[in-house]
């Protein structure tokens, strides 16, 4: 098979790693890819939102399967365009990707189909939102409705903070058109757990659990980021939690989307909060999480191509998803200053160490080639992932491997998976 992967981050590198392991695959292309993906695939200088160019390329190269990794092209309808051109494509169509593309839509869906989530109200003008805040309980959560690179969520402790938040999202348009509508949501407390799943329109098969660390600094301080590291599995995702979610969340979401005339094929990412009243849905994503994919996919025993094709063909019920009985931890190496300002173009060394050790992975996110050398090209630069028999062992291995990589403004959190030590 000839496979095209759309995207250029750590998630797409993890997907490419799995695709490359499949005996069914002869050639991988990635648009636009990055310096790490280039070891596994032919990188093509086409942006993920250049739909016409991607479709023309897929037809020209007679691509057998396209995998769309990123949220923007999914929400924008790339799957529809590729399928219309006769390209088998993995990912939800535009009318199903709204599950991630609009927080207001997903909250209304959960309310309608009785899927547990935080109490909320949707607003399409700032005046009404401000009026509502006068009677609200604090802390409270403000969410830009559309895509915002994982940063469009503000937790506000006071009325003043919340008023500033409304201004930031709806009036100053910090997140662009994503802030035309806003969700104001009750603040939930508890442990967060991420559960990724494969969906074929009817059947859902969940993967092993994970937990992300969103904040930039140790102790969950600092600004929200796209994710500073993950671990898998989560010791807090117990059998009881899984059984509750199987009954009240997972299948109900798939059935709800089908009932709405928006059958979902692809990946549903369930962001869960384990509250005192039980698990509740924080958010849905319509694709693999990044960096969650970097700890979940290396632990998957199945051939990813088999699972992806089953999702497309509606035969997922025939697949038995299997994961290794071990653990993985990913520590993101970022450019100092992320998520605000940071330098690019800084040379990176140490990659050769990963070829000497099994169970260690260096997934590239913000990298590129410059004069034959790999340099930094983004805020999140690399995802250093390691396996271990236990979470503690995987964590120690991952932090050991971060020392192999050197670049001038390297920054990371030092407490990824620290909750494991307290579990």
Automatic annotation (TrEMBL):
Biased composition (Basic and acidic residues): 211-220
Any Pfam family hit: GARS_C
Pathway(s) per entry: Purine metabolism; IMP biosynthesis via de novo pathway; N(1)-(5-phospho-D-ribosyl)glycinamide from 5-phospho-alpha-D-ribose 1-diphosphate: step 2/2
Cofactor: Mn(2+); Mg(2+)
InterPro entries according to UniProt: ATP-grasp, ATP_grasp_subdomain_1, PreATP-grasp_dom_sf, PRibGlycinamid_synth_ATP-grasp, PRibGlycinamide_synth, PRibGlycinamide_synth_C-dom, PRibGlycinamide_synth_C_sf, PRibGlycinamide_synth_CS
UniProt keyword list: ATP-binding, Ligase, Nucleotide-binding, Purine biosynthesis
Domain ATP-grasp: 107-313
Molecular-function GO term, any one: phosphoribosylamine-glycine ligase activity
Region annotated Disordered, chain positions: 209-230
Enzyme Commission number: 6.3.4.13
Catalysis: reaction(s): 5-phospho-beta-D-ribosylamine + glycine + ATP = N(1)-(5-phospho-beta-D-ribosyl)glycinamide + ADP + phosphate + H(+)
Sequence similarity: Belongs to the GARS family.
Name of the molecule in the record: Phosphoribosylamine--glycine ligase
Species per Swiss-Prot/TrEMBL record: Bariatricus massiliensis
Gene behind this protein: purD
